[in-house]
Design a protein that fits this description.
single chain, mainly alpha, 74% helix
Length: 121
């Protein structure tokens, strides 16, 4: 793995773990829809599907997870627009983390492609 891919790998790991932590904290105690927490915390579970492939640096996981995280971008954008107070700010953090993950994932896939790793002619 070259240095650019390694940087993208670490950004992807950090943003994905941050997104899982944010989703859980948001819906359990920071700004849940209902007092005492809500079932919306389960939205963090699908983020665990790509986590182990991302941790291992699997290029295919990066490819499909870059499209998968767009659901979280969409949810964050909608809630940033419609919610108020802390919930709107948390939604902006969700948007930022999903954008960081998206770009880290697509650039990791780019830097680890067979054409990027083969020597120039």
């Amino acid at each position: 793995m070259n240095s650019n891919a390694r940087i993208c790998h670490y950004f992807a790991i950090g943003s994905l773990v941050g997104l899982v932590a944010l989703c859980l904290a948001w819906e359990i105690f920071l700004a849940p829809l209902r007092p005492g927490g809500s079932w919306l915390m389960l939205k963090a579970l699908p983020l665990l599907l790509p986590l182990f492939g991302i941790l291992r640096g699997k290029r295919y996981t990066y490819q499909w997870a870059s499209m998968f995280v767009l659901f979280y971008f969409t949810e964050g954008a909608v809630r940033a627009w419609s919610d108020r107070g802390l919930s709107a700010n948390l939604a902006l953090v969700e948007v930022a983390l999903s954008v960081i993950f998206f770009f880290a994932a697509i650039y990791f896939a780019r830097f680890t492609s067979s054409s990027a790793t083969s020597p120039a002619r």
